[in-house]
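Long-time lurker, first post. I've been practising inverse folding by hand and with some scripts of my own, and I keep getting stuck on stretches where the structure tokens seem ambiguous. Below is the full token string for one chain I'm working on. Before anyone asks, I'm not after the true native sequence, just a reasonable design that respects the backbone. If someone could post their per-position residues I'd love to compare against what I wrote down in my notebook.
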């Protein structure tokens, strides 16, 4: 995080990323079916309150910070909607997931820090794979999408923890070519 970022901005970013991480991990692990007897529907309560309500409220508090606040509000609204909807037909679910993917794509290209872009990029990929799985009625593709959601949640968790623990959030830079040394 930048040194110019206020303490409130860091706090809302950490809380927002933790809320997104918890939601993505619960949703992703439920979708993969890796835990016996746990499915995506078991993540509804987490998606409703943590991914929906908490992320939405964090976004409202961070609206003045630009893209992070807007993204948190949008993702919170989408998670809330996913949690309270009956999911209708497979095609309706696929359409909703594609719309979710478009928001994630917008957040990916909107910029921000590298970890945030990675979180949103993986979220975009997960939602596209899950949408295709819904349209094709493919449980194998749904599991792949779930694992991508888990990866996105893990990166979101790392980003939040790194901000608090002062862990590295960027790869070290490298000189342009062989034998190039930095001046100064």
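-- Answer (accepted) --
I ran through it position by position. Result:
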């Amino acid at each position: 995080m930048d040194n110019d970022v206020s303490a409130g901005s860091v706090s809302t970013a950490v809380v927002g990323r933790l809320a997104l991480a918890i939601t993505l991990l619960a949703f992703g692990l439920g979708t993969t079916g890796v835990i016996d007897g746990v499915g995506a529907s078991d993540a509804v309560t987490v998606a409703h309150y943590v991914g929906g309500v908490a992320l939405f409220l964090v976004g409202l508090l961070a609206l003045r910070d630009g893209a992070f606040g807007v993204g948190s509000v949008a993702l919170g609204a989408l998670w809330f909607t996913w949690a309270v909807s009956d999911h209708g037909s497979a095609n309706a679910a696929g359409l909703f997931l594609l719309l979710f993917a478009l928001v994630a794509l917008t957040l990916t290209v909107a910029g921000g820090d590298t970890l945030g872009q990675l979180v949103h990029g993986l979220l975009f990929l997960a939602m596209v794979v899950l949408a295709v799985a819904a349209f094709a009625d493919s449980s194998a593709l749904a599991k792949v999408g779930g694992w991508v959601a888990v990866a996105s949640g893990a990166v979101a968790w790392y980003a939040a923890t790194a901000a608090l623990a002062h862990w590295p959030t960027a790869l070290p830079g490298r000189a342009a070519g062989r034998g190039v040394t930095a001046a100064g």
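A couple of notes from the structure itself: Residues 1-7 have pLDDT under 50 and may be disordered. The radius of gyration is 17 Å. Happy to go over any region you disagree with.
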